[in-house]
Amino acid sequence: MMTGMINNIFFIIFPIVLYQMLAGAGKRNFFVDYRITMTILFSISIILCMLFPYQFLTDEYIFDLRQVPLIVGALYGGPVISAVLFVVSAVGRIWIGGDGMYIAILNQFVIAAGVPFIRPAYMRMERTMKVITVFVISILSLLFNMFAGYLLFGDPIHDIIGIWLMLMLNQGMMIVLTALLIEHIVRQELLLNTLMKHEKLESVSHFAAAVSHELRNPIQSIKGFIQLMQVYDYNREKQLEFHDTILNEINAAESLIDDYLIYAKPVYGELERMSVSDEVCGVLKLLGPYANSRDVELLCHKGEENVSIRGDRQKFRQAMVNIIRNGVEAMPEGGELVVRIKAQPAKVTVEVADTGVGMTKEEVERLGEPYFSNKIKGTGLGMMVTYSVIHQMKGAIIVNSEKGSGTVFKLVFPKYGL
């Protein structure tokens, strides 16, 4: 008896556990989001329960828990799922044959036809009421079998009432545990959705704060110069000087907005074949004077020549500028920054290593997050843009760093043509 009962319990629980393992985040509508898969799994559960029944108290009665997945499927899946599960259970019961076949099929039909009508109210119930509801439905289905046996076959109820009470308790407890497990999964998914939504809103608020803070500075400068020109009558040379300053501030604001747009909604120009060594050397040449002013030596080890990747040339250069500039700024006392290009059969790695102050493990994990920067006046936009650009090029960023020992950025791209 115990072995058969344990088998039936496993057949019922397994589809639910499998759903918990495979369901994607945000899929909290238990049956509907994976309608076909769950219908197949519950159909298999019903068949297995019927193929492996167990004897209950006496050798004259065998029993199985097929009604549990049938009732649960009807409640959480709706009328279409209920109809499919009824057909599966009815065909299986006809194939097995034996006494009580017509009563069993009639009982299954009543469940499949009646339970879906309860579904709208059931889905609005609190968890406690749901548990009570499934327990009552289970009891009513067994009472139907008991009285149908009495009316159709003359089975003496007073002789078998004890057996039926135990069956009701057995199936009732099983369906309650099943409903509780499903409700727990649904609640966990709801909490996960809420947490994900909260994190998105928090990221947006931080991002908005960073952008508004950075935009306010050039706007205030522009406003101040315009007010000065309104109040005082400056000569032409001074006015041109003010105009240049205002244009520089406008360019700074435009650059910030461009960074925001690249991160929020990357827009790429023509994707083309790029020589990695040419692009990297171009960036190093561009940043050479800036590095020299900070006593930082830039070195490049090209490795294999003519190694190519596919991407947007301008955005790739922008990402490299952000990483190399950060590396230079991480060496306030000067140092050495080395760029290595390594080619493998299927990928290309661009390695940027500095001898700067380094980062902790926690700081490395937060790289690319909105509003996170190791710089006093930084907003984190540069690294956010860099991560966005690299990922859009189907690349990956690996960062190894240790406080006081420098940082190594590894940018891994698929080789052109693969």
- What number of structural domains do the residues give? 3
Shape: elongated
Strand order of the largest sheet: 4-6-7-9-8
Query: End-to-end span in angstroms?
Result: 59 Å
CATH architecture of the largest domain: Orthogonal Bundle
Can you give keywords for this protein?
9 strands, Heat Shock Protein 90, 5-stranded mixed β-sheet, two-stranded antiparallel ribbon, Sig_transdc_His_kinase_LytS_TM, alpha+beta, single chain, 3 domains, 12 helices, cell membrane, Helix Hairpins, Arp2/3 complex 21 kDa subunit ARPC3, 418 residues
Q: How would you characterize the overall build of this protein?
A:
- The protein is elongated and about 110 Å long.
- The chain starts with a helix and ends with a strand.
- Helix content is 66%, strand content 13%.
- The protein has helices spanning 2-22, 35-51, 67-77, 79-96, 101-124, 127-153, 157-231, 236-264, 276-293, 313-329, 361-366, 381-392, and strands spanning 54-56, 58-63, 272-275, 296-301, 308-311, 335-343, 347-353, 396-401, 407-414.
- It contains twelve helices and nine strands.
- It folds into three domains: 2-195, Orthogonal Bundle (Arp2/3 complex 21 kDa subunit ARPC3), CATH 1.10.1760.20; 198-264, Helix Hairpins (Orthogonal Bundle), CATH 1.10.287; 272-414, Histidine kinase-like ATPase, C-terminal domain (Heat Shock Protein 90).
- The mean pLDDT is 80.
- The protein is α+β, with helices and mostly antiparallel strands.
- The protein has a five-stranded mixed β-sheet, with helices on one face. Strands 1-2 form a two-stranded antiparallel sheet. A two-stranded antiparallel ribbon has the order 3-5.
- Strand 6 (335-343) and strand 7 (347-353) form a beta hairpin.
